[in-house]
Design a protein that fits this description.
By secondary structure, the chain is of the alpha+beta class. It has one domain. The chain has a 4-stranded mixed sheet, sandwiched between helices. It is globular, with a radius of gyration of 17 Å. 25% of the residues are buried. The model has no long low-confidence stretch (mean pLDDT 92).
Length: 190
């Protein structure tokens, strides 16, 4: 087998592994604990796009992000995209800088009110929390990722669900009730 073909085969296997691990995290952690009351419906409908980017530079990651925005523009059957970076943005603070850049790009390109970002990272830590605070797990994920949501779909879900402002506090209370050891066992990832 040629090296290029071998590389593509290995990359495909890694991509499928990342997709599977992300789905498992959604099903066995996010949905199981009802951390996002909208996730189950969207997963059941097949409206969640999980896209793996093997970007290793900020420029390549930004291009992958812009591509996913354009894909949402042209594919109404996708309600939300998780853009996963298995080889980039491992440093949480670099990740936050990238999120700021992505948000600025959305604003500059006229996407305010159309799409919004939610953030997930293996080392997620809220500004007012300690690193080992169990509540950080509400936004921890197996890989660095951007969750790109259609605001219109989000508004419909909010209308159905009701007061969504309570969700973060409910999630934090849920995880505090379970405790750090139990959450780590459920979380599946180090």
């Amino acid at each position: 087998m040629l090296p290029k073909e071998q590389y593509k085969k290995e990359q495909y296997k890694k991509e499928q592994q990342c997709i599977q691990e992300t789905k498992q995290w959604i099903l066995e952690f996010i949905i199981a604990l009802n951390l996002c009351p909208f996730a189950k419906r969207e997963m059941d409908r097949g409206a969640v796009n999980i896209q793996i980017s093997f970007a290793e530079t900020r420029d390549a990651a930004q291009k992958a992000f812009q591509h996913e925005v354009k894909l949402l523009d042209t594919t109404p059957s996708i309600s939300t995209t998780l853009l996963v970076f298995p080889h980039f943005l491992a440093d949480f603070f670099n990740y936050l800088d990238f999120v700021d850049d992505a948000d600025a790009w959305l604003l500059k390109e006229g996407y305010e009110g159309i799409y919004q970002l939610a953030t997930f990272h293996p080392d997620y830590c809220f500004a007012d929390a300690k690193e080992n605070d169990v509540t950080n797990y509400t936004n921890r994920s197996p890989y660095p990722m951007l969750h790109l949501l259609r605001e219109e779909d989000l508004e419909h879900a909010i209308a159905y669900y009701g007061n969504t402002e309570e969700i973060p506090e409910k999630n934090m209370a849920c995880l505090r009730h379970l405790g750090l050891d139990a959450v780590k066992k459920m979380y599946l990832y180090p």
